[in-house]
Design brief:
Number of strands: 3
Distance between the termini: 25 Å
Number of domains: 1
CATH topology: Arc Repressor Mutant, subunit A
CATH superfamily: Winged helix-like DNA-binding domain superfamily/Winged helix DNA-binding domain
Radius of gyration: 18 Å
Strand content: 5-15%
Helix content: 55-70%
Mean pLDDT: 92
Order of helices and strands: HHEHHEEHH
Shape: globular
Amino acid sequence: MTSESQAERELCGLVNGLAQQIADHVRDRAATLGLTAPQATALREMTGPMTMRDLAERMSCEPSNATFVVDRLEKQRLIERRAHPTDRRAKRLVLTPEGADLRERLLDLLSRDSPLAGLTKGQQDTLRDLLEQAITRP
């Protein structure tokens, strides 16, 4: 095994380890609010009104999976489906006031003891830039 392939394998292991720590962190914090990890991810990604397709993309899942999650959030009265202002075939997802409050509580919990909390802002920015570069590489 070349040192280059060994370094790449090690890096992949570290990225996977970090991803698992983040997933565990989200799942633990979500549970304290009575949410599943996918529900917490959906609420975290609801930065404003958006379509189901937009939310699915932000959640890195298929629209059908996002629909299942949104259906549950809608039953909990955390998200509403509303008519899209320019596309009558589409619906926009909007947080209810209760959903917005719960999202703020979730974001606060997620920021506590985050797996990335040990990094400075500059280190987090560098990590983000490097990951974006790796992901968008042709």
